[in-house]
Amino acid sequence: MKKIFKAIAVLMAGALLLSSCTDKFLTETKRDSASTDYLDTPEGLYSMSQSLYGMLQDYYSRATWNYIETGTDEMTAGSDTQGEAWNSYDARISSSATSGLFDVYYQWIGRANVIIDREKILENSSLKNETLGIAYFTRAYCYLFLVIQFGDIPLLTKPVSSPEREYSRQSRKQVYEVIISDLEKAVTMLPDNAKLATSNHYTKYSAAHYLAKAHLWRASEINADWNADYVTKDLEDCITYAQMVIDAHDLVSDYNDLFNNFTKYDESITETNTEIVVAMGNTGYDTAAKIFPGDYYQMYIPWYEAFTLMKRDIPGGRPYQRMKPTPRYCYYIYDLENDSRIWKSIRMTFAVNNCKTNAGNSASMLNLGDGSTVKAGDYFDSDEGKYLSTMWIINREDYGQKYYRDQVITKYNDRPKKAYDIIDYNTGKYIPAIAALLVYDKPASEGGSNTPIGTCLVPKQDERLYCSINKFIDGASPTFANGSWRDVVNARSAEDYFFKAEALIRQGNIDQGLAALQPLRERAQFKAGEARDSYVDGGKAYFDNVFRKDQKGLDANCSYYPYNSYYYSLGGWDDASYRAAKNATASVLPLVTMDSYPKEDQKVMTELGYTSDFDKAMCFLLNEKSREMYGELLRWMDLARTKTLEKRLYYNDTSFSKEMKDVAGQTQDLNGVTYSSSYGGSFNPQKHYVRPIPQTFLDNITKNGIPLTKEEKNAMQNPGY
CB under 8 Å to 287, separation ≥6 — which residues? Predict the structure, then answer.
């Protein structure tokens, strides 16, 4: 069971003096305020420091993905509308929409300030270093997030002991000085034990990771109007602290071990691997009240229950559809043949789970490709992940594998005319439905043009049909409705390779910086003997789910399928000897230099107009970070601080244009319906590189004891809001 961090509760203990059998009255002691005497002891401050770990849970329970992932080149809004405004940068991102994390982070800063202000109480205590280290780390973590999101912000370094309403905003320069100073203290105070990071502890290396990040962020383009005196030293320090983390936290050998080889809570390698630098440990699984909020866990999941012969279940999760990968970027930046990360990061196959026990919305009779007609429940005799139901294939032109319009589904819960005409080589059963990134016209031999004419992954119509990021799926949960108990990884050492590489590139050592990423690319290669079509995600934990005996209805059965669509996307799926030979051979991702970039990166560089050595190197680095860390809630912050967001929104139609196009460049879907967006076209680089200061803050502060005027509020607000 994970350690549960609890906030301090200072309890009142009233003395009750009972009368004897005499004339004496009951004596009462009046207490109308809680005592904080416990905080005048080292033990009390240590206990309070443990409560600060709750800050990480707030990070994931307040729609944070809207701040840090939606509206980027990686992610666009799904059919759920909660993130639509953030994705399209329209007027709904107002000063009333950003108060959640702004308010709560100042509460955590306030708690940290209480501990730091009482340092003398800890002077001779063995608890001193850890207590203060946690407080300094928490304050710096909160301020780093706030300055990245809001720019100039109020800076509080002393506890507030009485009502205070006079606040101003301090410059980013001042805020970064506090952040870096706090993290430097935390590095010297927190435990020098990297293994503690997997058990709800901050360590020296946790602080070093965010120190590298803070130095790199301060040296980035977003701060170019004031950071000239810091850049040289910042880049040196970034490399130093990133290397410190790299040396202490080895990369895992299998990319699947980071997220997908999840088996059970507290013991899975996904929760104990060496790459974890900071993690939010969950509170255990003995009561439903302790289940982690489900929005974060389920935000990428599509409406898979509408696929053929399927229903909602635990291995698939609850389809919130908050966000989906942008198809013009996601499916074009990977080397599909040699980079295993796309096949280990994205779920492209689903299993029949609604056929044998309950036909649901599925047809009871199936017309197979050999001309026969069978009962669905007889043909697919299991709903436990045995048979392939729906499969996505990439269908990129440069790999030559083409699927045509009459072979794929083109809309929600659709079956094409020639359904069931391809046999799954793993089971010998016909595949009920295939969806494709690109859809082609008929081949020339049949009177067609043999060219791409559209996509199943349409921008708006039927947008519930998409492939999902699979890194957070939880098949061990008792119910899909309540979310996940899995630990959440806040930071892993792979990102420190990017910190180091970028700092080297910024120093002018471009080839050295590109080479620094080679360990990640080598890890991404398929190993000799690794089946390239094997697939695993956290849904597999369903088979050992301790709650499985109680599951029924929507919770029962299994949509997890243990194979991906590698060969269907690349060719050779119908040749067993070819597949065997391919699986026996290791793949190769070549060393990248400034004179030799992969074709996928050259395509992006051309589309975005990058020509200088620095811009091309940074373009590659940002692409590579997507390949390594797609959907890990980092993207907006990287693009904002490098000021590349405006260019990279080229890949997210609803962020830069109301005239939407699919990956084939078409403005209409395959049925002639024009793609449309009610919003979009609103990103403004003069405005949207920071978020609006919350209205609640502006309404509640005063100047000389008087509420701010409209003009004063406008002066306190970020430009354009």
Answer: none
Q: 428 falls in which pLDDT band (50, 70, 90)?
A: very high
Regarding pTM above 0.85, the answer is yes
Among candidates 544, 704, 536, which has minimal Cα distance to 167? 704
Q: What is the per-residue pLDDT across 125-137, written as a single tens digit (0 to 9) for each?
A: 999 999 999 999 9
Amino acid at 584: A
Query: Mean pLDDT throughout 13-42?
Result: 54
Query: By CB neighbour count within 10 A (0-12 exposed, 13-18 middle, 19+ buried), where does 489 fall?
Result: buried
b/e sequence 493-521, b meaning 16+ C-beta within 10 Å: bbbbbbbbbbbbbbbebbbebbebbeebb
Distance CA 693, CA 169 (A): 10
| Furthest-apart CA atoms within the chain: distance in Å | 110
Predicted confidence band at 663 (pLDDT cuts at 50, 70, 90)? confident
**pLDDT grade for 183, boundaries at 50, 70 and 90:** very high
Each residue's pLDDT tens digit, 382-418: 999 999 998 999 888 888 878 888 888 876 556 554 5
Rounded to the nearest angstrom, the gap between the alpha carbon of residue 541 and the centroid of all alpha carbons in its chain is 21
**In the 8-state DSSP scheme, what is residue 153?**
B
Helix (H) or strand (E) holding 188: helix 172-189
Torsion, Cα of 542, 547, 552, 557 (10° steps): 10
The count of C-alpha atoms lying within 13 angstroms of the C-alpha of 479, restricted to the half-sphere facing its C-beta, is 11
The closest of 479, 558, 533, 139 to 310, measured between CA atoms, is: 558
How many helices (H) and strands (E) the chain has is answered by 27, 17
**Could you state, in order of their start, the residue ranges of all structural domains in the chain?**
288-619
Distance in Å from the first CA to the final CA of the chain: 46
> In degrees rounded to 5, what are phi and psi of residue 604?
-65, -45
Q: How far apart are CA 68 and CA 59, in angstroms?
A: 11
Among 229, 207, 208, CA closest to 218? 229
Q: Please determine, for residue 515, whether its predicted confidence score (pLDDT) is greater than 90.
A: yes
Convert 283-307 into a string of H (helix), E (strand) and C (coil): CCCCCHHHCECHHHHHCCCCCHHHC
Strand pairing class (276-280; 488-492): antiparallel
Question: Dihedral (C-alpha) 550, 554, 556, 560: value to the nearest 10 degrees?
Answer: -140
The pLDDT score that the predictor gives to residue 290 is 44
In whole angstroms, how far apart are CA 214 and each of 71, 72, 154, 514, 558? 23, 21, 18, 21, 43
Exposed (0-12), middle (13-18) or buried (19+): which is 584, by Cβ within 10 Å? exposed
Of 711, 708, 705, nearest in space to 163 by CA: 705
- pLDDT at residue 659 tops 80: no
- Tell me the C-alpha to C-alpha distance, in Å, between residue 649 and each of 394, 418, 654, 701: 22, 37, 9, 36
- Residue pLDDT, tens place only, 582-597: 999 999 999 999 999 9
Give the β-pairing of 433-436 and 439-440: unpaired
Rounded Cα–Cα distance for residues 248 and 275 (Å): 9
Cβ-contact 88, 679 below 8 angstroms: yes
